[in-house]
Design brief:
The protein has about 290 residues and is mainly β. Helices cover about 15% and strands about 35% of the residues. Strand 4 and strand 5 form a beta hairpin. It is globular and about 65 Å long. The termini are far apart.
Length: about 290
């Protein structure tokens, strides 16, 4: 009798240990399933494969230097703002891009729309490797009159997935507009072939986290997504056929109204936050 009880206990313990061992795998499988929830249906014969170099859950204690730069590699920022690596941080499982100022009053600046007085932030993929595929980021805009942007750029073309304004000064209602664009400028910005688009979101860019996505389908076709829903389709002004850097940044758009000093000094308002970013490419089913 005691032997049967002992064997029964061993079997029970083995079952428990087996379940515990399987639990992390089950969690990983569920997590992977959730990560793929917003992916568009792939074309017949193809499947989506993650691009690790352009994906990050930002769960570490700092920016992953193997994937990201805390500055723009060839641009300082849009005047009167300028990117500052000190304004980039990763903590609480979020990427933070903060906009700040060192002045106490706008009267200290001779030409506020031109002279640099705002310290902005930028994060860049280490290499320009983004190409045809699906990319999305879950982010929340800062609640100031500056952009919170997710975009791509090569040598002569650019995809602005979003250039959100959490609290635009001149037209407050624009905080609910998802602002998208593409640019093509091999002959200079004065000859830019752009395709601006907008879509009204259910809540403001700084009120909630939103998932912004783009399917760069081919050299002429780009689809934009909000929370997994396709909201716009763009035929580019020319062939988009070059690899690009992936960017997150904050900028001052003078035409949307300058941020005020108080908002730039308010930690509850001055930070754009990115929960995660994910990149995917299509491969043939037999690969």
């Amino acid at each position: 009798m005691k032997r049967k009880i002992f064997i029964g206990v061993l079997v029970f313990v083995a079952l428990i240990l087996g379940a515990l061992a399987a639990w992390p795998a089950m969690q990983r499988a569920q997590w992977e399933k959730e990560k793929m929830a917003n992916l568009p249906e792939p074309p017949p014969g193809y499947r989506w494969v993650a691009i690790p170099e352009l994906s990050d859950e930002f769960d570490s204690d700092g920016l992953d230097a193997a994937k990201w730069l805390d500055y723009h590699p060839y641009w300082g920022g849009r005047e009167p703002s300028q990117h500052d690596p000190a304004n980039v941080s990763v903590h609480d499982s979020l990427l933070h891009l903060t906009s700040t100022t060192d002045i106490d009053d706008i009267s200290e600046v001779a030409v506020p729309a031109q002279d640099v007085w705002v310290r902005a932030a930028c994060v860049t993929s280490r290499e320009p490797i983004a190409f045809y595929g699906y990319y999305e980021a879950r982010m929340k805009a800062s609640a100031i009159s500056m952009t919170s942007a997710f975009w791509f750029q090569g040598k002569y073309s650019e995809i602005d997935v979003v250039e959100q304004l959490g609290a635009p000064k001149d037209i407050p209602s624009r905080s609910r507009w998802m602002l998208m664009n593409t640019h093509y400028y091999p002959d200079g910005w004065e000859h830019d072939r752009k395709t601006p688009e907008s879509w009204q979101m259910p809540s403001g860019a700084a009120d909630d986290y939103h998932i912004y996505g783009v399917w760069w389908k081919d050299e002429n076709t780009i689809w934009f997504y909000h929370n997994g829903q396709k909201v716009k389709e763009v035929q580019t002004g020319a062939p988009f056929d070059e690899p690009m850097y992936l960017f997150f940044d904050t900028e001052v758009f003078v035409w949307e109204g300058l941020p005020d000093v108080a908002s730039l000094k308010d930690p509850a308002r001055n930070t754009m936050m990115v929960d995660w970013v994910r990149g995917w490419r299509l491969v043939a089913e037999d690969r």
